[in-house]
Amino acid sequence: FACPCCRWLDYYGKELQKSEDLKTNACITSARPLPKAVRDALKRVHEEVVARYYGCGLVIPECLESCRILDLGSGSGRDCYLLSQLVGEQGHVTGIDMTEGQVEVAKKHIAYHMDKFGYQKTNVEFLQGYMEKLGDAGLADESYDIVISNCVINLSPDKRAVLREAYRVLKPGGEMYFSDIYASQHLSETIRKHRVLWGECLAGALCWRDLYSIAAEVGFSPPCLVTSSPITIGDRELEGIVGDCRFVSATFRLFKIPGSSWAGPGQVIYNGGIVGHERELVFDANFTFKEGEVVDVDAEMAAILRSSRFSEKFLIRAGGANTAAQQGCCCTGVKVGSRQLHGWIQRWGHRYPLPSELSWDLGGATA
């Protein structure tokens, strides 16, 4: 099993016949209640597409109308067909996957879905290729508003390349919204080469500290944690192999913030109107915006809202939060060392909460 994805597909194809066969809850993620629009859209996706899908939960950000979205590791296309309804006929969704069979299933049902949605023109496409080499698939610089990924980055042998490519294809102000598995420490070779742990999406998990350092190195804003839940291992043999390492399933959002958007902290008012979030927008684990309510935000969040697709949904003015602890982060886009990163996480931990299951070892963070 030289290829991580082949190990995973072999495990799923030969050993798992039903969800009860899983030895962990990594692929049975808990999530917030889905908006009605999302639930209704999911019902219109072809049953074969849903049956062949191996992702975890749903990765559906907000404010999607007319957006261009790229799905990394799109599989049979479930998330793409769901999102194609939410972006509307004027939007566009591209799915890319390395597995020929999955791409074929996704492509087979394009006409069915466009007819089901009442679209006169196709707003989805599926490509076979690698998420580490999006240029080889013809994906141009600054061509997407949003990049999503549903529990597949852990299968990549070069996660830095995945984030670098996502950053490249995103427009200024664009967002990477993705779920994946993270570990509390760097994994041993025994874990990394274990066939079942690969199949359960644990052996390729990124150490959470590395997510923060890679995001900074690539140029993204610091990761905003959206949701997280601990992964339990219901197998004594696997528990013995894993030892004291802990795993968590988490959804993060990263933004490509233009330098011109940095203007210090501010006050924002959510205007409402985002479909499914008309009265309240739960942006991440730290910020919830209620319609008409004035909220003080730090420089980081002010820059995100000012530069992204959310800008038209908010009134944003300078001022508000102005303490030293709320000035945002000045290191976006700058390469940082382990000592700098550790100090930065300690300083901004209140703003960028880590999954509680992993933050126990913060005091010993090293590169």
Structural account:
- This protein is an alpha/beta fold.
- It has two domains: 253 residues, Rossmann fold, CATH 3.40.50; 86 residues, Ribosomal Protein L9, domain 1.
- Helices cover 30% and strands 20% of the residues.
- It is built from 13 helices and 13 strands.
- Strands 1, 2, 3, 4, 5, 6, 7 and 8 form an eight-stranded mixed sheet that branches. A three-stranded antiparallel sheet has the order 12-9-13.
- The longest helix is centred in the N-terminal third of the chain and has 11 residues.
- The two termini are 29 Å apart.
- The C terminus is likely disordered.
* CATH-level-4 superfamily name of the largest domain: Vaccinia Virus protein VP39
* Total number of helices: 13
Order of helices and strands: HHHEHEHHEEHEHHEHEHEEEEEHEH
In the residues, how many domains can be counted?
A: 2
User: Could you estimate the helical fraction of the residues in percent?
Assistant: 25-40%
Shape: globular
Q: Quick one: how many beta strands?
A: 13
Family: Belongs to the methyltransferase superfamily. Arsenite methyltransferase family.
EC number: 2.1.1.137
InterPro entries: Arsenite_MeTrfase-like, Methyltranfer_dom, SAM-dependent_MTases_sf
Organism: Athene cunicularia
